């Protein structure tokens, strides 16, 4: 089956739910447009301007320019209320499999659901695929070759996720991959709750685990419990809002779901060793990198 170029303009709706083995390269541009991707399809999302608004059955979020998303879970709705531009490459696992090549001696794992910063190389490949799919006669490379290059680059981009597979429960690679995908679903739900409060029972239900089994499996794979991960994200978000914005502390308190401003201030000082006022007065801002705790520690050392 071919690779299809599917442009979307303002006030248009494209529903890909009909059975299809094509790979769809969708280019959204405008406002009030919608794209519906069916459950279990694999889709790669690349915002270009203003981001793309995404909605899954259990959450809604904005994917911003500079980020990328690989989705292969439940159905996904995408759109723009404002004037924006984005690319999406969507297809069934069988459609993607035609363009995926495993390294010699390595098993074919396939793409895993993930959300991360987009590299310049991946952005260029995504844009190049859209251009070649739209006007194949103007490119010396076959559109299938460009799709293979994008698939290979995405696979390489996910090497860190592939390294987690040996930690997952399961006797076969397929079983371990299914375990990891369940835990990545939980991780995604935690990230989508900016206030940092998670319902363990709800998270466990999303993975078809009991709460105890989820805590044990999640810790085995990621080295921390779901609650610890949520608390870490909450702390990173607090540091970012205090250091990188002029948002009043009372508004930060509400945004992060703290019971009171005094509770937030106590938690902030207990975590970072300084008050919010001291953090904002630091002469040399040290940005906090996602997934690390070193930036606040460095900031504390500077303050000392």
From TrEMBL:
Stored InterPro entries: AraC_XylS_family_regulators, Homeodomain-like_sf, HTH_AraC
PANTHER family per UniProt: ARAC FAMILY TRANSCRIPTIONAL REGULATOR, HTH-TYPE TRANSCRIPTIONAL ACTIVATOR RHAS-RELATED
A Pfam family that the UniProt record links to this protein: HTH_18
Parts of the chain that traverse the membrane: none
Protein's UniProt name: Helix-turn-helix transcriptional regulator
GO molecular function, one term: sequence-specific DNA binding
Source organism of this protein record: Luteimonas salinisoli
This protein's UniProt keywords: DNA-binding, Transcription, Transcription regulation
Domain HTH araC/xylS-type: 184-282
Domain of life: Bacteria
């Amino acid at each position: 089956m071919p690779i299809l170029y599917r442009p979307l303009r303002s006030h248009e709706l494209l529903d890909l739910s009909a059975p299809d083995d094509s790979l769809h390269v969708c280019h959204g541009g405008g406002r009030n447009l919608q794209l519906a991707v069916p459950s279990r399809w694999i889709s790669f999302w690349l915002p270009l301007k203003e981001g793309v608004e995404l909605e899954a059955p259990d959450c809604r979020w904005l994917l911003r320019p500079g980020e990328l998303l690989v989705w292969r879970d439940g159905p996904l709705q995408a759109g723009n209320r404002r004037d924006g531009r984005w690319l999406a490459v969507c297809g069934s696992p069988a459609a993607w499999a035609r363009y995926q090549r495993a390294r010699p001696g390595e098993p074919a794992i396939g793409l895993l659901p993930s959300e991360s910063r987009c590299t310049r190389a991946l952005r260029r490949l995504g844009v190049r695929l859209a251009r070649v799919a739209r006007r194949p006669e103007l490119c010396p490379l076959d559109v299938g070759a460009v799709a293979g290059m994008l698939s290979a680059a995405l696979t390489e981009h996910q090497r860190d996720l592939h390294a987690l597979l040996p930690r997952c429960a399961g006797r076969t690679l397929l079983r371990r991959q299914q375990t990891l995908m369940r835990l990545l679903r939980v991780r995604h739900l935690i990230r989508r709750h900016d206030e940092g409060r998670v319902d363990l029972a709800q998270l466990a239900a999303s993975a078809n685990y009991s709460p105890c089994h989820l805590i044990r499996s999640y810790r085995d794979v990621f080295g921390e419990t779901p609650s610890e991960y949520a608390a870490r994200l909450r702390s990173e978000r607090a540091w970012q809002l205090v250091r990188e914005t002029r948002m009043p502390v009372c508004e930060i308190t509400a945004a992060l779901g703290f019971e009171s401003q005094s509770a937030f201030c106590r938690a902030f000082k207990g975590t970072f060793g300084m008050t919010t006022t001291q953090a904002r007065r630091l002469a040399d801002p040290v940005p906090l990198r996602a997934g690390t705790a070193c930036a606040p520690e460095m900031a504390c050392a500077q303050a000392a």
